């Protein structure tokens, strides 16, 4: 994998991390009930591709 590909993988991981952080912040401050749970689960499920992109950018 070229260094440029690793850079893009790390940028994607950073972008997904920002999206997950904003989603969990929104879910906890503005929503209630089932919607809060669903948004929180979506945010936490984003951590799987984040982890994969982080591993790819390191190796």
Q: Which residue ranges are poorly predicted, with pLDDT under 50 across at least 5 consecutive positions?
A: none
Average pLDDT value? 92
Give the amount of beta strand, in percent: under 5%
Taking the alpha carbons of the first and last residues, their distance comes to: 9 Å
Shape: elongated
Number of E-type strands? 0
Q: What about the largest sheet?
A: none
Number of helices: 3
Q: What series of H and E elements makes up the topology?
A: HHH
Residues in helix, %: over 70%
Structural class: mainly alpha
Please state the CA-atom Rg, rounded to the nearest Å.
14 Å
SSE diagram, text form:
Blueprint: H1 3-30, H2 33-45, H3 47-58
Helix pairs in contact: 1-2, 1-3
Can you give a write-up of this model?
The longest helix is centred in the first third of the chain and has 28 residues, at 3-30. This protein has three helices and no strands. With 59 residues, it is an all-alpha fold. It has helices at residues 3-30, 33-45, 47-58. Helix content is 90%, strand content 0%. The protein starts with a helix and ends with a helix.
């Amino acid at each position: 994998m070229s260094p440029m590909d690793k850079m893009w993988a790390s940028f994607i991981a950073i972008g997904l991390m920002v999206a997950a952080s904003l989603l969990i912040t929104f879910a906890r401050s503005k929503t209630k009930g089932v919607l809060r749970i669903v948004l929180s689960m979506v945010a936490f499920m984003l951590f799987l591709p984040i982890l994969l992109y982080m591993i790819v950018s390191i190796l």
